Amino acid sequence: MGKQSNRHSTADRLAAVPDSSSPAYAGQHPLSRAFDSFAAVVTRWAGSPFAFGAALASVVLWIVAGPVFRYSEGWQLVINTGTTIVTFLMVFLIQQSQNKDSVALHLKLNELLAANRSASNTLIGIEDASEEDLRRIADAYLKLAKRAGQMGREAERRAVEASATAARGKSPEAGA
User: Fold this and answer.
1) Domain limits of the chain?
2) What's the confidence (pLDDT) of residue 20?
3) SS (H, E, C) 165-176
4) What is the C-alpha to C-alpha distance for residues 58 and 41, in angstroms, rounded to an integer?
5) Could you give the C-alpha distances from 152 to 99, 142, 167, in angstroms and in order?
6) How many Cβ atoms sit within 10 Å of the Cβ of residue 162?
7) Torsional class of 161: left (φ above 0), alpha (ψ -120 to 50), beta (otherwise)
8) C-alpha count within 13 angstroms, C-beta hemisphere, residue 47
9) Which candidate, 49, 35, 24, 40, places its Cα nearest to that of 94?
10) What is the pLDDT of residues 92-143, one digit of tens each?
11) Would you list the DSSP string of 81-120?
12) What separation in angstroms does the CA of 67 have from each of 60, 64, 76, 129?
């Protein structure tokens, strides 16, 4: 019975973890692993100075070729089609990299929450909450911050009063 209960608790915990189609867990399927590697290489390259230089050179070459092609519709179609195709494909590659980075960031934050004894660990896995739940939790934290600010101002006011009273040579209890 102990093994069965242990399997259920593991399955329950894993239900909150992204499945193998998630970029952070791409190691389980060869196609996902290949796409993950490809996307990582392409996004690193696309953000490099060399890639920017290549894109700039392509645009300059296109502009220079304008008079040769008499600024025809075909000449315009080349740049429009090229940029559309590159943009379309890059959206998926960049999104994959963003998904992976997001999962890694959430795992790091979860580790910090779990390691800090005074932190509430109720927010671990919050990224899977609904939009409504996130708004409700954000509102609760805004209220908490407001109360903390008010309490801080009150404590600051008391400290200033105590300092002023001590400077006058009176005890704080004596009042005015």
Assistant:
1) 20-122, 129-176
2) 42
3) HHHHCCCHHHCC
4) 21
5) 39, 15, 22
6) 12
7) alpha
8) 8
9) 40
10) 999 998 988 888 898 898 888 888 888 877 888 888 888 888 888 888 888 8
11) HHHHHHHHHHHHHHHHHHHHHHHHHHHHHHHHHHH-TTS-
12) 13, 7, 12, 56
Nearest to 46 by CA among 100, 99, 79, 94: 94
Residue 4: both structure tokens together: 């069965």
User: Residue type for 45, please?
Assistant: W
Q: Which helix (H) or strand (E) holds 140?
A: helix 131-168
Instruction: Give the residue among 116, 120, 150 at the shortest CA–CA distance from 137.
Output: 120
Pull the structure tokens for residue 63: 């502009």
Closest CA to 59 of 75, 48, 42, 41: 75
CA distances, 71 to each of 2, 57, 78, 81 (Å): 76, 18, 11, 15
State pLDDT tens for residues 52-80: 999 999 999 999 999 999 999 999 999 99
